[in-house]
Amino acid sequence: xxDTAIAGPTQWVMPMSHAQLxxxxxxxxxxxxxxxxxxSALRLRGRLLPxxxxxxxxxxxxxxxxxxxxxxxxxxxxxxVVHESRPVMxxxxxxxxxxxxxxxxxxxxxxxxxxxxxxxxIRGPLxxxxxxxxxxxxxxxxxxxxxxVADGWSLGVLxxxxxxxxxxxxxxxxxxxxxxxxxxxxxxIWQEEYLAGGxxxxxxxxxxxxxxxxxxxxxxxxxxxxxxxxxxxxxxLIVGMPGADAEAIRQFARDHDVSLxxxxxxxxxxxxxxxxxQKDIAIGSPIANRVRPELEPLIGFFVNTLVMRMRxxxxxxxxxxxxxxxxxxLEAYDHQQLPxxxxxxxLAPERNLASSPLFQVMxxxxxxxxxxxxxxxxxxxxxxxxxxxxxxxxxxxxxxxRDGFIFEWEYNTDLFYPARIERMAAQFVxxxxxxxxxxxxxxxxxxxxxxxxxSRPALTALRSGARRWHGDSVVTGFEAQARARPEALxxxxxxxxxxxxxxxxxSDCLAMQxxxxxxxxxxxxxxxxxxxxxxxxxxxxxxxxxxxxxxxDPSLPAERCRQMLAAAGATRVVxxxxxxxxxxxxxxxxAVSFLGSEPAALAAAADHDARWTAHPNDPMYVxxxxxxxxxxxxxxxxxxxxxxxxxxxxxxxx
Length: 654
Description:
five-stranded mixed beta sheet; single chain; 22 strands; disordered N terminus; alpha/beta
């Protein structure tokens, strides 16, 4: 069977859509990176005809101009170039020679490398397809396409039309597909005319009002400082929810006349509030934006991004928060045609290379395709490929399938350790269940989050106890918490984590060592450790021994360290062994004695149940300034002053 050639010139130039223009600019800015590659991976079991599959794919490429498009800088700015003929060759790689035990890992490694390879927008192609042979009658089909020419909806169109063409091939006929009314370039022209006509002014007025006063950034509790520039390094955590639980959530949405997305939005916003301490939360959300029937069968980049602004302070119960989510979402849908790129330009938020404008977190809901690709005689299933890039700080993707929910937590590894995201994922599932069961309960009274980094119930308890603790010490407060909730998470540092019970036992051991070494009340003890669990253990132990800790950075110049130790009269240092060794090698001979505090060294003796206290007038820590003369000067802060400040924070801040 011969394909009919497309009439017309070899190539022709079309304007870009607003979404394409922004992505092109970002791709130019982030040259050498691949955060804009999207992937579709399928496992195929059965008798497959690769040649028929390739011919079917190329008929789809011939049918959709977007798949034959590249981009270049024209005389009046960047444009898209549509090519008359751009056949796509399906790469074929045989992995069967690999040992069976290593085959899946090798497949995953190759697919990840394929996804991570940047595409050339000028030369193309912007669609790469590889068929991996795993064994007789088992393959993996992987398609990677640049976001500038396709979106999630497009992948469904691609799978449907390839499947139709393949079935027609087996029947010895040509697939009969309805003619496309327009191509993507026509849409780009129509969008420009639509916006130039002033129709978008109504949408712009709405978004100006809706986003007025929006905080510039959502500051989630992170494990690392934000880099000066985004590197898009990411990882994905996948968590499932069984079908019965998922159906209960769907039924809850139906009972309250809201969509599943609105339920997820309310719970996600609440969780983000818990982890940021902020009550004004902006969440990005993609929308298909195929507002006309002519756009539905097209492959192209139509998706728009909406900003869902959730004001947590306006809701007392989850029912009220859900009602707010419904109102926010419906209004956003009514004003979805204003391109996100134009909204950003109009609002002109403070821009930086460290984070995305307007929002830094995203929520995506998608329905799992029951049959992602239909090929006669072949069983097709989705092959999940964890991403190694992240467009935003955190993206929660929810796949609504017949077997339940799949939650895909894509996170920026420059900001978060896996352990923190694992806890957030567990908290989200916990909240999703609890909020639906206790929809009329006060949000402050919801059951405690498991290992919550910051929970409103804990905040409420602190608020009510602030006056009681007023004038007391940090040690007393810590001991009370350790007795009340010994299993609660107290410290998280990378892969390390300690409960309050564990932290108490380990700090007890070190405190006893300090006392046995002759530590006196009010004595200044230097704490020299990298950010770690050992650092927190050391600080607590010094306070339990009624000493005052002095933070000592081992990377400071040796003379500065000696001056600080001498000025404070510190004759002991506690901390981790690596920092000790570095400090000792640089400051030379000194009267300072080093007392280790590695958790492993303390664990053997971590069975004490001592009760500790500290006097409100005891010094808590000594902090040094540079001094006006260049000589370090120490300032002492006591327990009473510190607790006064904490009580004010709890009472005055939200």
